[in-house]
Amino acid sequence: MGRKLAGIAELLERRIAEELAVEADMASMITGFRRTTAEVSAAMNMTAARARTLVGHAEALNTRLPAVGALLAAGEVDFDTVELVLARTELVGEDLVTQVDASVAEQIRRWKTWSRAQVIIAVDQAVTLVDADAAKQRRVAAYDDRSVTVTTGLDGMAVVRIKISATEGAATDAQLSALAKAVCPGDPRSLKQRRADAFVAMKDGHILTCRCANPDCSMRMGGLADPADAVGDAAEPGTAATPATPETPATPAAPVPPAFRPGPQVVVNVIASADTVNGASEAPGYLCGFGVIDAALVRELAREATRRLVEHPGFDPGQALTYRPSAALARYIRCRDLTCRFPGCTVPAARCDIDHTEPFNHDDPASGGLTV
Question: Could you tell me the sign of the dihedral formed by the alpha carbons of 218, 220, 224, 225, in that order?
């Protein structure tokens, strides 16, 4: 594929040169692009739209990202990854794209079987680092486009789409999961269904109530989050309620209102260098589970956040001979790796187990597999 794109780029240069020789204006360049697209479409038996995209990719690799293009031609990176790089860098200005090209190409030489999410993280970090101001401007502009839309679905369903900031999205996602997991194991709904029901409950200021068959479950439908919130007159401590008599029939119990309580407290983790937090660096941060965020947003979040300094704990001879890593080492590893290290896996590191790259020798720990 690399050779094909290089050939397309050369063909494009020739066709544009031919048109410019007739009349040196922008229209000639556009005509040259159209001619190349038509030829590629016919030669490669593809639609005009696909050919147009391919010619655009060839031009970008030839003029904007030559280092990445060279790696593709050498077989050091696959075309799917290159397409991802092209998409994530198309808004970078001509004055900065050379730096991004060099940075991404250097990372490509080091990475192995990275997942799509890991590639996005690496490319976004490179883009944000060289163009921090533009990254902030794009974020602010994107926030102005936040919205909620509700459309009709099939079979009596509706589709809700919400566009909010990444930090608000991370908090909402964590709250939905926390509510969905708060019911007892006997609840018959799937996690996906419980998250949907939790969204509706949050909308009304309610908690998610359990649908299990256990009448004593404190989270069952109609139960209250806190007995102290019970509605109605309760007997004073040490007194008995007045029993119903034929003359004074019992008043039918009013339906118990849905349970109210504050939403679950959730933690949204952001990983950034101390220099970024202190304003000495514009290196981007990472919003766990979502992706790269610009340095300005890191500092904005850090003003009201609980900070924890994470450093490599160093070599501890005693700890190295134990199977389980210390809390400090585990925290450092998760902040360093961000996602699972298994090829192609995108599970956030916070939800992964930690194990040794070299098997730990339980019989003779000093012989290998040290916990360092």
Answer: positive
Bridge partners for 151 per DSSP: 159
Q: Is 270 helix (H, G, I), strand (E, B) or coil?
A: strand
115 and 346 Cβ atoms separated by less than 8 Å: yes
pLDDT digits (tens, 9 = 90+) for 85-126: 999 898 888 889 999 999 999 988 887 667 788 888 888 988
- Residue 149's H or E segment, with its range, is strand 147-152
- HSE-CB at 310 with a 13 A cutoff on CA atoms is 19
Look up residue 11 and give its two tokens: 């063909």
CA gap 288, 270 in Å, rounded: 6
- Identify residue 152 by its one-letter amino acid code: T
Global pTM reads 0.67
Q: Which amino acid is at 48?
A: A
DSSP string for residues in 37-75: HHHHHHHTT--HHHHHHHHHHHHHHHHT-HHHHHHHHTT
